[in-house]
Amino acid sequence: FPLFLQVTCNCFTISNGEMQDVGVGLYPSMSLLNHSCDPNCVIVFEGCQLLLRSVRGIQIGEELTISYIESLMPTSERQKQLLRQYCFECDCLLCQNQEKDSEKLAGEEHAWKEVKDAVNEVRYPKSKEEWKHALARFQNLLSSNMGRLPDTNIYQLQMLDCAMDACINLESWEEALYYGTRTLEPYRLYYPGFHPLRAVQLLRVSKLQYRQDMFPQALETLKQAYNIMKVTHGTDHSLMKALMEIKEECEAMMRIQ
Predict the structure, then answer these.
(1) Which of 81, 132, 148, 203 is the most buried (most CB within 10 A)?
(2) Please, what's the largest Cα pairwise distance for the chain?
(3) CATH number (domain holding residue 15)
(4) Which of 192, 225, 194, 200 is nearest to 72 (CA)?
(5) Of 144, 218, 207, 155, nearest in space to 183 by CA
(6) Which secondary structure element, helix H or strand E, spans residue 35, and what is its range?
(7) In Å, how far are 28, 220, 251, 256 from 215, measured between CA atoms?
(8) Helix (H) or strand (E) holding 114
(9) How confident is the model over 135-192, as pLDDT tens digits?
(10) Are 95 and 124 found together in one domain?
(11) What's the CA gap between 118 and 138, in Å, rounded?
(12) Burial class (CB in 10 A: 0-12, 13-18, 19+), 96
């Protein structure tokens, strides 16, 4: 049991190129890093290799920090998770000011609670039928909540993300792009500066634009992703190399046209 607790408190969630969880790993030196909800560093993976990247200027003697949890949650939810899993309360400026909490829970409360439940209930569909069922439920909620929930509501945003995933799995590219495009402004709001999740989202949307022959738009979205990813991932990361390949293909297609 003590070993289990040590792993729970000190492990890192290993993610793939699209920041999807694929496993956990122990990295002893990196476990020394403390938490902030507004960290000066991020962690990304290249396979099982952990990379620590700074995302802003760091002063001599300044502590390096990372976020142990998903920062999209409201302050109260972040505090609950940190206390439950890591046994401490965060007192960073973001938590003290409860910054952006009003935007995160904007809209009618009963509507976003229904959306929150729906997203939690349809996690990890495995078959096309399950994806179809999930998408139909999201479409109904998006339609019925029109004007009641802004896309900046975090549960509405999560549902848009899930709807995009469903459409991608069902090869409904045009609809996937519609949902993906709606997520970009909330991502910019909640992941300002240099954040790997925003870079990956921009890259995903650019792929959908490219697939529909929207080459100028895809190129512009790729440039935004590149400007973030060169900081969060570095120019040698495999995801950056994939981005550059799509960029070259876009430029080639634009020359042909």
Answers:
(1) 203
(2) 63
(3) 2.170.270.10
(4) 192
(5) 155
(6) strand 34-35
(7) 44, 9, 8, 11
(8) helix 109-121
(9) 999 999 999 999 999 999 999 999 999 999 999 999 999 999 999 999 999 999 999 9
(10) no
(11) 8
(12) exposed
What DSSP letter does each residue of 48-113 carry, written as one string?
TEEEEEE-S---TTPPPEE-SS-TTS-HHHHHHHHHHHHS----SHHHHHTTTHHHHT-S-HHHHH
* Same domain, yes or no: 71 and 134: no
Same domain, 91 and 126: no
Say whether both 121 and 206 belong to one domain.
yes
Instruction: Report the domain count for the chain.
Output: 2
Average pLDDT, the chain: 91
Q: pLDDT by residue (tens digit) across 60-79? A: 999 999 999 988 999 999 99
Distance CA 29, CA 190 (A): 29
If asked whether residues 137 and 14 sit together in one domain, one would say no
Instruction: Indicate whether 8 pLDDT > 80.
Output: no
**Is pLDDT at 113 greater than 70 in this prediction?**
yes
Q: Is the pLDDT of residue 257 over 80?
A: no
What pLDDT, in 10s, does the model give residues 196-207?
A: 999 999 999 999
Q: Are 150 and 244 contained in the same domain? A: yes
pLDDT for position 18:
67
CB 141 within 8 A of CB 114: yes
**One domain for residues 98 and 112:** no
Q: Are residues 32 and 158 in the same domain?
A: no
